[in-house]
Design goal:
single chain, 92 residues, mainly alpha, membrane, Ser_palmitoyltrfase_ssu-like, endoplasmic reticulum, transmembrane helix
Amino acid sequence: MTHTISPIRSDTPSFRTHSFREHVWRYKVVIETTFAISVLEPWEKVVFLIVLSLLSLLLATGCVRFLPLQFVGMRYRLAYYLWGNEGNMHPT
C-alpha cells in the first residue's frame, strides 16, 4: 500500500503567509533572473545598478520637465486640427 500525498497541502508555499522580507527577496530574485544580474560579479552589479539608476533619473527628469511643455504644444495643435483656428496659436 502506497501512501500518496495530496498535491494541495496547507504547508505549501502558496498557502503560507509570507513576511515582508520574503516578498522583497522574491522580487529581488525575479529582477536578477530577468536581467541576468545573478551571473554578474558584485562590482558589475554595482555598475549595472548605477547605470540603471541614472537612466531612470533621466527618464523621470524628462517626464517632469519636458512632458508638460509638450502637452501645451499639443493643445494648440489639437485646436488647430479640430477647429482650424490659425490666429493666436501660441500663448504670449
